[in-house]
Structure formats: C-alpha cells, structure tokens
Amino acid sequence: MSSSVTGHTDAPATPASEPHALPNRPVTAVKVARNMEDLMQAFVVRAAVFMSEQRCPYAEEFDGNDFTATQILGLIGDEPAATIRVRYFAGFAKPERLAVRREFRKTGIAADVIEFAVELCRQKGYAKLYGHAQERLVPFWKRFGFAPMGRPDFVFSDHRYIEIQRDLDPLPDALSITEDPMVLVRPEGQWGEHGILERSAERRATNPTGN
Ligand SMILES: CC(C)(COP(=O)(O)OP(=O)(O)OC[C@H]1O[C@@H](n2cnc3c(N)ncnc32)[C@H](O)[C@@H]1OP(=O)(O)O)[C@@H](O)C(=O)NCCC(=O)NCCS
What is the pLDDT of residues 103-147, one digit of tens each? Predict the structure, then answer.
C-alpha cells in the first residue's frame, strides 16, 4: 500500500507518494478523500456494495452524515475499490460504512483502509474506537482488535448490529492544542508534510489592503 497517515514531525515537503506493488498483491493506495472526484469514488463503492448488493435504500445509505465525516478511499490501480468513513465524538471516533467492491474482495484492501482509519484516529489523539458491526461480521472485526461490548443488539436498514469497541494507544506525538499552528492547518492525514498554507506564509501579510 502506498499511502499512510503521516505524523507531524517537521518534514520538508515531499511529492505525493506513488502507489507501489507489494509482492503477490495488486497496486493499492489509500488516501483521505480531498475533493469531489475522491468523494464520488468513495460513494460509488458504497452505492455498489450497500445499495446494489445489500439493497439498502438510498436515503438510509447516504444518511446525512457524509459531510461530517472523514472519507477514506482505497484504490487498486485506477479503480475505486474500498472505502470507510470516520465520524468524531468527544471521547471516541466511529469508523463506519466499510465497503469493498465485490471484485476486489480478499485483496487485503479492507485491512488497508481499516488500518489507515485507525492510524488517522491515533494521530488525532483518540484512545477509543466505537462501531456498529453487522452481526455476521463480528469475527471479521475481532481480527482488527474490536470486541463486542456485550450490550443488546439492534436493527437498522434490515441488518442486525452489535456494538463493538477497540482501545487505542494515541500516538506519542498526537496532535494537540499545543501543536504548531502551521501543522494543524496541513491537509488532514498529511501532518508530516509541509502544506500549501505554509508555502503561502512566504508571502507577506498584505491583507486587508487599503489601510
Ligand atoms: C466486509 C468486507 C469489507 C470485507 O472485505 P474483504 O475484502 O472480503 O475482506 P478480507 O478478504 O480481508 O476478509 C477477511 C476475512 O473476513 C471474512 N469475511 C469477509 N466478509 C465476510 C462476510 N460477509 N461474512 C463472514 N466473513 C466474512 C473473509 O472470509 C476473510 O476470512 P478468511 O481470511 O478466513 O477467508 C466486504 O466483504 C464487504 O464490503 N462486505 C459488504 C459490506 C459490509 O457488509 N460492510 C461491513 C459493514 S459492518
């Protein structure tokens, strides 16, 4: 996998990393969706998997929470293959809407997008992840360190769900209020690389003009 969440050591700007092949694995890349093209790619994966395969109604799949979340996109070659989104609450983050297009299952990209999401949350300082697992996928989530919370199951969109959680070790250099402000303005998940706003700081503060 080419992409990873980068910590915020004060590294110089680097070009976007190129996807690279791992032995016996297709070329994959995982990234935060940053523009409409990325978002469309994440959403077509969701539409194919949840609306088409699982027959979820549109309004339940695209539930009004997509613009409060970080959308993560997994690519195999040029094809959008996998996605997961993360929503944030005061004491925990909530990964959800994990989907891998049927033709890209068992490639390992499910693990890649989950691990990317986990690292993003660690970098943000979260110590707890909370999720709703489709009942049949609880063993799958256990592989990623999630454990059932032992509370009553519940149903929505025609699936039975189990609450799961995972404790995290926040990264020692997790982002905090004492962070360098120019690190906090870097693009989400790319806190280890100089961003465009740092380049903008080379210009003098000339606005507002006229006084
Ligand atoms: C769940 C999902 C993302 C897993 O992707 P994947 O590429 O199949 O994942 P992996 O190949 O890494 O699977 C890991 C293991 O979980 C198992 N697994 C995957 N999907 C499963 C399912 N629906 N039921 C039971 N086990 C499943 C696989 O068999 C595999 O086990 P194995 O290694 O012993 O063969 C994919 O099946 C998917 O998109 N499903 C539909 C969407 C969905 O239900 N999302 C989850 C909402 S909680």
Answer: 999 999 999 999 999 999 999 999 999 999 999 999 999 999 999
| Claim: this prediction has a pTM higher than 0.85 | yes
Answer yes or no: are the C-beta atoms of 129 and 93 closer than 8 Å. Answer: yes
**How far away, in angstroms, is 136 Cα from ligand 1 center?**
9
Quick one: 28-127+168-199 is in which CATH superfamily? Gcn5-related N-acetyltransferase (GNAT) (3.40.630.30)
Distance 72 CA to ligand 1 centre (A): 18
Q: Which residue has the higher pLDDT, 14 or 110?
A: 110
Q: Which residues line ligand 1 (CB under 6 A)?
A: 49, 98-100, 105-106, 110-111, 133-134, 136-137, 140
> What CA–CA distances, in Å, run from 43 to 24, 53, 61, 118?
28, 14, 10, 20
Nearest to 116 by CA among 4, 37, 7, 6: 4
Query: Which atom of ligand 1 has the smallest separation from the CA of 134?
Result: 48
Residue 7: what pLDDT? Answer: 72
